[in-house]
Write a structure and sequence with these properties.
single chain; 282 residues; Rossmann fold; four-stranded antiparallel beta sheet; Pterin_deHydtase; methylenetetrahydrofolate dehydrogenase (NADP+) activity; Tetrahydrofolate dehydrogenase/cyclohydrolase NAD(P)-binding domain-containing protein
């Protein structure tokens, strides 16, 4: 990418031109050759020990060396007006030597000689790291022992915006609780699967208990509290609100409710409890 950026910066087009890439590594040479070919260049890829390398350099309109062998491309091998880009470098005790050595005296025959793309590569690497960080799904920080517990007054006020949730005390710890009714056990399983992904993303997790009611559906009891503080915190309200939205998205705002059967309300009233008419005087 650094080489292509440099060529683009100097207005060097590669379409229809002969490009020689010296270096067949999977890190630089071969990926670069593929990108150049996708832009219409006629590309030749060789190693530093290729037979007739001087001739290949003399025929190329663009020479790119990425082998890490000082002087692999001599000045007298480059045809006048060619574009030469040096990628490979070699560390010595006292210096950093490029693959393409500049001419000691006088102008270089190349119309453009790029001594190094190192700074460009570093800049692009940092750009890619930053771009990846912006798009990465980073888990939020979890609650700790220093997370502030909400006072009861604040909890009750927040509960006004979370219908069906309540504040309960269990084992000496306050927690938020709600029962989610669903028509089938399979629906509960689907909901729990989605809730697990959601909780992992929020880095905060609920406690769940499923009660299957046969033909009357199933109930998922959810209670939420912050384990690190053994109290209710803002983390719990955020998770409760997210689970509520998930429930509404999956099953609709109207929500499922068990069918009302009149037989459930049948009862027998003993005759002696039925008022007689005319009533007997008391």
């Amino acid at each position: 990418d650094g080489v292509l950026r440099v060529l683009g910066h100097y207005g060097v087009g590669v379409a229809g031109r002969r490009v020689l890439v010296i270096g067949r590594s999977w890190l630089v040479g071969r990926p670069l050759a593929q990108q150049l070919m996708s832009r219409g260049a006629t590309v030749t890829v060789v190693g530093s020990d290729a037979e007739g390398l001087d001739r290949l350099c003399g025929d190329a309109d663009v020479v790119i060396s990425a082998v890490g062998r000082p002087g692999v491309v001599g000045v007298d091998c480059v045809k006048p007006g060619a574009v030469v880009v040096n990628v490979g470098t070699t560390f010595t005790d006292d210096d950093l030597l490029p693959d393409i050595m500049p001419e000691a005296e006088g102008p270089h025959p190349a119309s453009l000689l790029v001594h190094s793309v190192g700074p460009m590569s570093v800049a692009l690497l940092m750009r890619n790291v930053a771009a990846n960080a912006r798009t990465a799904d980073v888990a939020r920080a979890e609650a700790t022992a220093d997370t502030c517990a909400l006072p009861e007054s604040a909890i009750k006020k927040r509960l006004q915006s979370l219908p069906c949730w309540s504040l309960v005390d269990r084992c000496g710890h306050s927690r938020l609780q709600r029962a989610f009714w669903m028509p089938t056990f399979a629906c509960v399983v689907d909901f729990i699967s989605e809730a697990a992904v959601l909780a992992d993303h929020m880095n905060h997790h609920p406690n769940l208990q499923v009660t299957h009611q046969c033909t009357d559906g199933a109930v998922l009891d959810v209670d939420i509290f912050t384990f690190a503080t053994s109290s209710v915190t803002s983390f719990d309200f955020e998770l409760a609100a997210a689970l509520t939205r998930l429930y509404q998205d999956m099953f609709g705002a109207g929500i499922f409710a068990p069918d009302v059967r009149m037989s459930d309300f049948n009862y027998t009233l003993p005759d002696e409890l039925i008022a007689q008419y005319p009533a007997s005087p008391r």
